[in-house]
Write a structure and sequence with these properties.
CATH class: Mainly Beta
Strand content: over 45%
Distance between the termini: 28 Å
Helix content: under 10%
CATH topology: Porin
Number of strands: 14
Number of domains: 1
Shape: globular
Length: 284
Amino acid sequence: MRLLPTLTLALATALPVAVSADNAQTQRFGKIKGTGAVSSISGAGGGGLIPWATLSSYAEDGQLGGTVFASQARVDDYQLDIYGGAFNVHDRLEVSVARQDFLIKAADLHIRQDKVGLRYKVAGDIIYEQMPQITVGVEHGELRDEAVALSVGAKDTSGTDYTVSVARAWLNGIAHRTTLLNVNLRYGNSNQFGILGYGGDDEDSRVNVEVAGAVFLNRSVAVGFEWRQKPDNLSALTENSARDLFLAYFPNKRVSFTAAWVDLGDIAGAADQRGVYFSLQANL
């Protein structure tokens, strides 16, 4: 069963969720600008490479919110295009979907994958409570194009990851700027985000760590980093951790734009895959 319905396009994602104490004007939404974060490559709210404990959009308790996004990563030998969206229920439950289209440039070959996610805020708040915000999530991927994954030794062409995310923002953080830190634990066996299937003949630890940090330079601009540890399940191919350095621009609560330098490491035998990432998100 295919998991992703066609969504309305809007360019989108990958950035932090930092906040500004001076920016408490409510506009149509109640939250401070920036706390809606952006969209990850799986469609969940957070940064570009990983979800964060924050939920998508600016919905508060008793409100509904949504996002649509489109993103593109270009590295030396590959290109990844993603579009999708997320729906936030009462700032407690998030449902997300994304379609990934991975292009192997040399062969002009596309590998498409559908992602669907569900995340629930368990406790806390990134700003207003002593306890940091804690969110648990489930992320399921299903390949539409299975041949490459099977040829490199993947056990399955679909799989599920489970995440626990913890985040805290300090309004008077680094250099007296709003500063955010997010840490994830991920349990799963996806190969290259699931693009090369799930599991393999040399299955590595299923528990991996993901970290993100951001500093808000002013009310509208944030800079930061993400690091994502990945399993190394295929004896024929080496898989490295992924990382990025990003700049996010929040002109208002309706849209956000992200630009990043990304390092995805070795992918399918092609070494040192580095390049750029761009994303645009719209809040509904």
